[in-house]
Design brief:
globular; Aldehyde Dehydrogenase, Chain A, domain 2; 38% helix; 22% strand; 498 residues; Aldehyde Dehydrogenase, Chain A, domain 1; 23 strands; alpha/beta; six-stranded mixed sheet
Length: 498
Amino acid sequence: MTTIAHWIDGLAHTGAGTRTSPVHDPATGAVTGEVTMATTADVDDAVAAARSAFATWRDTSLTGRSAILFAFRELVNRHADDLAALITAEHGKVLSDARGEVQRGLEVVEFACGIPNLLTGDYSDQVSRDVDSWSFRQPLGVVAGITPFNFPAMVPMWMYPVAIACGNTFVLKPSERDPSVNLRVAELWQEAGLPDGVFNVVQGDKDAVDAICDHPDVAAVSFVGSTPIARSIHARATANGKRVQALGGAKNHAIVLPDADLDFASDHLAAAAFGSAGERCMAISATVAVGSAGDRLVEWVDRKAAAVRVGPGTDPASGMGPVITAAARDRIVDLVDSGARQGARVTTDGRGLVVAGHEDGFFVGPTVLDDVTTEMDVYTEEIFGPVLSVLRADTVDEAIALVNANPYGNGTAVFTNDGGAARHFVRNVDVGMVGINVPVPVPMAWHSFGGWKDSLIGDSKVHGAEGVAFYTRAKAVTARWPSIAAFEAASLDMPTAT
């Protein structure tokens, strides 16, 4: 039985607490390890280490920081298969998907490697007679990340590369369900030459989260998870004077117009709904078929759902692995049951799926429900599983109104060959990230990630330019170097540019 500890000030740290939580292999149901739950004292130790390291890290040159980022990038790339294996062992997603997660995280590391360009300031000469003015950005200090189970490598990589490149030090609280990958990441940071204390990992649950939100030396908190928890963290941390990025839940829609290529659309819808067992904040969980597209689309989607091979993530033949826990599996099945009771037609049924040789694994097969309405539980709840609900609309505008009425606004997509209809959709849908024939429109690292409405609490997105702005604060300087000959007496009036 493996004991999974913290990483504080460059060392594995068993912590002060005695509480642990089991870590499972979702494909077998077996307990493979015990993760140590951090106490407030453990969080204090991590923050103290980060605070001490900040004093020197903030003064490290931009080129020095970039050199370490580049070295870290090379190490992550070299060990990508090892990191993917750790993800699959504790999350359950198939290895190819885990490798893709690492790659998308690496894109943010590569973005952060350009920090000298990203932190250029502004300079204005002669704003007044013999007066110059300039602005630049400085790091905040100790910042923290609280991240979910569904992307144990990628989502933290949306945060700490940018924060560290900007000169901050970082305390990460990953999900206790799949905690191991970030300990390996910490080792790679150390191998890359990052000074001890700049990157720290505390394992744990709500106790650790509350300690981070309350700690007076933590300047900012980044969070990705469910909307209720995002609201709670945002309220608690901002009440304690911290900056907060808080990304919440999602109910992502794709609308399919009658002119769309249904073979193409259904193929991508199935991938977006069932990839990673639907445990993605950008998964498509609701499809709105417009006009005559409905019946034909369901036939195509059913065909694609039936072709998905479900099995352990380590099997190269598996297209989809298990969900994260037995409780998650049971909740997904209950919601599908509820949809059937409330009048939806289950056209592809993944309930009761048993994978040979993995009978105790947490498996749910791809599931499609047709004739779903907006009042059904299967629509109103964020399922976070391999379930695709199909709704109907008569027109594009009716479909847009349906999407806009949903409280979430994370991601959406339109499938069509009509450029005018696509443009109309993009301009009128109230969602933060939009795809045109792209069902999972996760922006590249140099654009910022984040939704609208209940999918983003506050207004700060992650990575990209907004990430740099979040992890720094601007300082404006106005300077005069007077000579005795040109000396003028000071005035009590408001200074003006004359």
